[in-house]
Amino acid sequence: MNVANWLADAADRQPGNPALLQGEHLVADYAGFRALARQAGRRLAADHGIMPGDRVAVFMKNATDYLVLLYGIWWCGAVVVPINCKLHPAEAAEIIRDAGARLVFTDDGDIFGDALLVDGCLENTSVDYATGLPARSDADPLARPISRAPGDLAWLFYTSGTTGKSKGVMLSHGNLTAMSLCYPVDVEPVTSNDAILYCAPMSHGAGLYNFIFVRTAARHVIPESRGFDPDEVFSIASVIQNVSFFAAPTMVKRLVDAVERHGLASDGIRSIILGGAPMYRADLERALAIIGPKFIQIYGQGESPMTITALAKDIIADRSHPEWKRFVTSVGHAQSCVEVRVLSEKGKPAGWGVRGEVAVRGGTVMKGYWRNQPATDAAIVDGWLRTGDIGYLDEDGLLTLTDRSKDVVISGGSNIYPREVEEVLALHPDVKEVAIVGQRDPEWGEVVVAFVALRPQSQQDEESLLSWFVSRMASFKKPRRFVFVPELPKNGYGKIAKTELRALLESDKPALGIAA
Ligand code: AMP
């Protein structure tokens, strides 16, 4: 089962359906998309000698060519190594080396200088490759994608490396198929009238959501900016209609701000699938009030991409439900191709409501880490992927995440879950963003530190935030220190970079305009 078959089949069934759009402009219909992908696959095989199983890296901003390249790489049986375009070329080079990629596609062919050639690993090709230039050799096009077994590698994705060296997550054609089939069941059904907009990096979740939209011969829209511009999202959606897209919570906040500022209409947006980081209830309430009932939440991780749980749109939208608060604090129910458990410290299933590490088993769980058996053995135990996330299951099957296990702050022997503290501070109308981290402390072991970005013109200070906090939560959880920042640092995928905040605290040299 080669995932590229879905493109071949969609083009057989609906060749004239619009497929690739740059902003509002049509670039290719399904017959054209297939022709470009087949041509790319042919050139990879004939001109570059790419063989099934070879790794080909893509280090590019979002583009219609990005999709052409993905399907071209799969067409000839090779493996995609997607690299976050926001990484430094030196970091990308590290990934390329580790993956042993033979070819890398970039927006700018000179980006690496000689760095890669010195290592002798590959050629570096800029993207004009995908635009249908004739192949140097006149070998016959591959009529259909090369046959691949479900367990064959398709996507070698590098984790952000927040807990050490970045690791290559091996996802097979079978994993990607399982993930994609969950979408219409657990997220929402898709038809050829739908459109997916890629405003988050395609090297990550946004790109992985392409498959079911290919399968159904729906439209794929790349913003002209090739990135995330809230005003552009609304303007594209109003023209294209029926637009869905993946967004991290920080992106959702920017969308909400844009609507508030410019009074934009969100009628062209069908759904915003949010995930990748905690969405605080206060932020969700605001988003619902301002953008409308368009949100679906998913929880996944690179090792079980986009697919651990989902919280349905109608549950999120029904604010009159007496249990709404509990529902939307959770990340929903297990998706259909996986089982979810919470494990106690001894590795046994924990009872309802008891916190432990979330574990998942099923069709989306990675094959393991690339050339790293010790890390694979630590992550997958008896067939269950240990997610490193802490949470609890309710009797009705809802999973609530409290934190990453490494983020828990242990102060005076008590476990404090940053997510809880963040939820309370995020409710404050003047708080724009908040992140809680632990700081080493000789007396308490660790103390809670709150990094806070306030809304413009707000007059809050440490004392007023503290009194807001202690009137709502146990005093032992209160932040011992507030650090006010204009904005919280984010990684390339828009997640708050707690490692950076911890490093600032460790060095105790408040930088980046931080006033302690
Ligand atoms: P990544 O592998 O970079 O996609 O990061 C996955 C991690 O992001 C998960 O293990 C969670 O810690 C976090 N995450 C993903 N989705 C959610 C969500 N809906 N709510 C809270 N945290 C999430």
UniProtKB/TrEMBL annotation:
> Which InterPro entries does the record associate with it?
AMP-bd_C, AMP-bd_C_sf, AMP-binding_CS, AMP-dep_synth/lig_dom, ANL_N_sf, ATP-dep_AMP-bd_enzyme
Give this protein's Gene Ontology molecular function annotations.
acid-thiol ligase activity
UniProt domain AMP-dependent synthetase/ligase: residue ranges: 8-370
In Pfam terms, one family for this protein is AMP-binding
PROSITE patterns recorded: AMP_BINDING
Q: Which superkingdom?
A: Bacteria
* Name used for this protein in its record: AMP-dependent synthetase
Which organism encodes this protein? Answer: Paraburkholderia terrae
